[in-house]
User: Which sequence fits this backbone?
């Protein structure tokens, strides 16, 4: 079969580079194979137990996670064409999510389902999902065989792998003499130089999103940088680069070394290729995303991996000063979270300026929908309310939203959730108890009064199933008014309130 495909594609004048068969390739067995080994047992995963019916994997690598699956096929008697069966749709998309979560260096993934003897293709990239019209595998059995064989023989790029990034399989780690010692892969930079990937620092979890992944890389001189690889909306393609150039030179802010479009087939890579190549009309919901990379310095671990209480407090001191300095040039970071602060050689740095906004002249705030949580609270407000335990408890509830991207060890919350100007944030500060001696957490649940569960509905919306806050708190009208006026006074005095 391999020889037949080689002969077939070599006769096509401009055959695809996805099939670069060498003369001796006909004598080799394909290094990929179809397997049903997980049809009765789940692929190991801590968050989601899934059993794909048929998977395509590298026959030389033992499958340990979804990072080793190239594509899969779901088998069902449901008829997706007539019932739009959500169970089948959800099953395929869930497996696609797990694949792209574990292989964020994929440009796209392709999956298949055989539903009531119909074969549709499911194409997923960072702009969305396309499901093709199905073909009957009974009437067109040859098409099914051709599909399976083509997937078996084509190279990694045709499976969606980014040709500029290569992560080594376990069996090949340490076998590349031109890489740095301990490298887990390599990446091509703007000038096509090969850089060693030493570690994956962070990766996002979304399916149709920026799909950000940050690597710690090392050049031939042993110098280390951070490489940020992500897919960005067309209208914000140069936004972060422009902001980083604007804040260049401010202490404790990461420095941009270089930024560029990732090229695919000598053109800027984007999700519009699948549409343009096939002449498909774009849906009004389609948003083109461009593949973008940037070099940043320094490269270190996030704030959560601080080594001492002193280092953490000094880091927050640096963040306050840097944040205030950025405000003087009308730059509002807009996404304060533990993942967006790093510590390097005793100094701390702001990173990740995706959601940064520029405050227009004459204004003191920006209109923003935020990035998922309420604004960080002012440290002055928290300090002033420390003697009013009821208010402090309410404030702790406001800022207790926790949204982490990777599993963390058991943690305790500290009252360091906010330090500066109110900015929209996606996470609060998490302090690992094993890194702090007993008693370092100033306020614990044992010191707080009896808490009141949040009632159903919205506050003050009495006629719409809401509630009266004063009644639920059990305060007298005078006590409620005094505390309300006190909090309003502190808010106006210490916070720059964003107006929506």
Assistant:
């Amino acid at each position: 079969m391999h020889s037949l495909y080689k002969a077939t594609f070599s006769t096509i004048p401009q055959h695809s580079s996805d099939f670069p068969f060498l003369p001796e390739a006909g004598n080799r067995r394909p290094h990929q194979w179809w397997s049903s080994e997980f049809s009765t047992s789940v692929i190991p995963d801590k968050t989601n137990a899934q059993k794909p019916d048929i998977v395509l994997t590298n026959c030389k690598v033992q499958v340990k996670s979804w990072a080793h699956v190239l594509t899969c096929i779901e088998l069902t008697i449901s008829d997706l064409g007539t019932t739009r069966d959500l169970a089948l749709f959800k099953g395929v998309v869930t497996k696609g999510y797990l694949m792209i979560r574990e292989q964020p260096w994929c440009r796209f993934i392709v999956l298949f389902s055989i539903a009531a003897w119909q074969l549709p293709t499911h194409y997923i990239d960072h702009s969305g999902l396309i499901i093709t019209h199905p073909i009957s595998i009974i009437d067109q059995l040859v098409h099914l065989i051709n599909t399976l064989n083509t997937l078996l023989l084509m190279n990694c790029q045709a499976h969606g792998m980014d040709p500029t990034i290569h992560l080594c399989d376990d069996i090949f780690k340490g076998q590349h003499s031109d890489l740095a010692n301990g490298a887990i892969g390599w990446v091509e930079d703007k000038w096509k130089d090969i850089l060693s990937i030493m570690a994956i620092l962070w990766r996002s979890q979304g399916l149709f999103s920026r799909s950000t992944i940050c690597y710690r890389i090392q050049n031939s001189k042993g110098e280390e940088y951070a490489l940020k690889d992500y897919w960005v909306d067309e209208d914000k393609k140069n936004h972060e680069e422009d902001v980083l150039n604007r804040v260049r030179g401010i202490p404790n802010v990461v420095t941009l070394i270089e930024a560029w479009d990732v090229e695919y087939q000598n053109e800027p890579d984007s999700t519009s290729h699948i549409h343009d190549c096939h002449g498909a009309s774009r849906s009004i919901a389609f948003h083109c995303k461009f593949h973008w990379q940037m070099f940043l310095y320094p490269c270190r671990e996030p704030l959560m991996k601080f080594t001492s209480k002193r280092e953490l407090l000094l880091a927050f001191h640096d963040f306050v000063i840097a944040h205030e300095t950025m405000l003087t040039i009308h730059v509002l970071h807009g996404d304060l979270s533990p993942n967006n602060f790093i510590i390097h050689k005793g100094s701390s740095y702001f990173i990740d300026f995706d959601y940064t906004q520029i405050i227009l002249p004459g204004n003191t705030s920006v209109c923003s929908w935020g990035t998922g949580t309420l604004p960080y609270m002012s440290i002055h407000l928290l300090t002033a309310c420390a003697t009013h335990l009821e208010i402090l408890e309410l404030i702790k509830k406001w800022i207790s939203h926790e949204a982490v991207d990777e599993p963390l060890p058991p943690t305790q919350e500290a009252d360091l959730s906010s330090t500066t100007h109110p900015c929209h944030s996606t996470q609060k500060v998490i302090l690992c108890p094993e890194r702090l001696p007993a008693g370092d957490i100033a306020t614990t649940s044992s010191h707080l009064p009896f808490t009141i569960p949040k009632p159903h509905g919205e506050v003050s919306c009495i006629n719409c199933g809401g509630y009266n806050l004063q009644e639920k708190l059990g305060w007298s009208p005078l006590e409620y008014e005094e505390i309300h006026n006190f909090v309003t006074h502190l808010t106006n005095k210490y916070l720059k309130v964003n107006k929506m």
In short: The first helix runs from residue 2 to 10. The longest strand covers residues 194-203. Residues 21-27, 370-376, 398-450 have pLDDT under 50 and may be disordered.
